[in-house]
Amino acid sequence: MRTFRSKKGPFSEAPYYEKSEIETICLDELAKVNLLPKQPEPIRIDRFIEKRFAVTPAYEDLADGVLGMTKFGPSGVQEIIVARHLEDEGSVAAERRIRSTLAHEAGHGLLHAHLFVLGKATQLLFGDHSDPNAPKVLCRDVPIGGSSAPRYDGQWWEFQANRAIGALLMPKPLVDLALLPFLVNRGTFGGKSLDSSKRTDAEDALARVFDVNRAVARIRLEENYPQADDRQLTL
After folding, report:
1. Could you give phi then psi for residue 12, rounded to 5 degrees?
2. Is 230 a domain residue?
3. Does 127 lie in the same domain as 68?
4. 66: which of 26, 34, 49, 62 fits an S-S bond (Cβ 3.0–4.6 Å)?
5. Considering Cα of 113, then 210, then 100, then 227, what sign does the dihedral take?
6. Per-residue pLDDT tens for 105-116?
7. Are 101 and 212 found together in one domain?
8. Per mean pLDDT, which range of 1-5, 30-34, 162-166, 220-224 is the poorest?
């Protein structure tokens, strides 16, 4: 991880993580609390938060457009909160959106807690800015127009936390195993790649196996194996 001076946002200094670093951090943290399965299955993200940060996710009424928030104090994560309307909805899609929100907030905890502990945060991002002793907060907004596409507006901390969603809910080694039925042999050295004719089926399978919404599975697949790219599978 490298750092750079930040002219935007709540931090005087910003960390820069390579994609591989986020993958490794999330894998290692899941393994440390014995929540990295040996076979593809849903990650117990709520239990991960409880064991890793010693907090139990709560459900509260949040401002319009806010799905979740993480409160930080001098010792790190103090609270992780999810919008109550997601819990009240009770649908499979809403339950999976809760899982994505929890993973996003856990990403903030893993990647950004040190900024609050070290006093790198210069302002609050949510709520009352008048109390300097109040917990500092990072929150996750609903994308503009309700789209599944991420919205960053220069918010590198949100981009990094979104990267953690896939890394936590769909760890690379488990995705490799889940995709075996959709791989084909390519080249003379026995390399395998994703059969483009089975991409839709692969997305459906990943969503079902890891209990995530289709959009999360699609992004995870696309960021590691773009449709226009015929390289070996890198998930």
Report:
1. -80, -20
2. no
3. yes
4. 62
5. positive
6. 999 999 999 888
7. no
8. 1-5
41-64 burial code (b ≥16 CB/10 A, e <16):
eebebbebbeebbebebeeeebee
Q: Tell me how long the chain is.
A: 235
From residue 210, alpha-carbon distances to 15, 45, 72, 111 in Å are 29, 11, 29, 23
Distance CA 107, CA 10 (A): 17
- Does one domain contain both 10 and 96? yes
Same domain, 135 and 181: no
Could you tell me the two tokens for 194?
């994703």
Q: What is the CA radius of gyration of the chain?
A: 18
Q: How far apart are CA 202 and CA 207, in angstroms?
A: 9
**49 shares its domain with 123:** yes
Q: In the predicted model, is pLDDT for residue 130 greater than 70? A: no
| Per-residue pLDDT at 122 exceeds 60 | no
| Global confidence as pTM | 0.85
How many secondary structure helices (H) and strands (E) does the chain include?
Answer: 8, 8
pLDDT digits (tens, 9 = 90+) for 61-104: 998 889 999 999 888 999 999 999 999 999 999 999 999 999 99
User: Is 96 contained in some domain?
Assistant: yes
Domain that holds residue 149: 2-169
Q: Is residue 235 part of a domain?
A: no
Measuring CA to CA, how many Å separate 121 from each of 14, 69, 78, 124, 137? 10, 16, 15, 8, 10
Question: Does 79 reside within a domain?
Answer: yes
What count of other Cβ atoms lies within 10 Å of the Cβ of residue 135?
A: 16
Structurally, the chain folds into a number of domains equal to 2
Q: Which residues are CB-contacts of 103 (< 8 A; sequence separation ≥ 6)?
A: 45, 164, 165, 168, 169
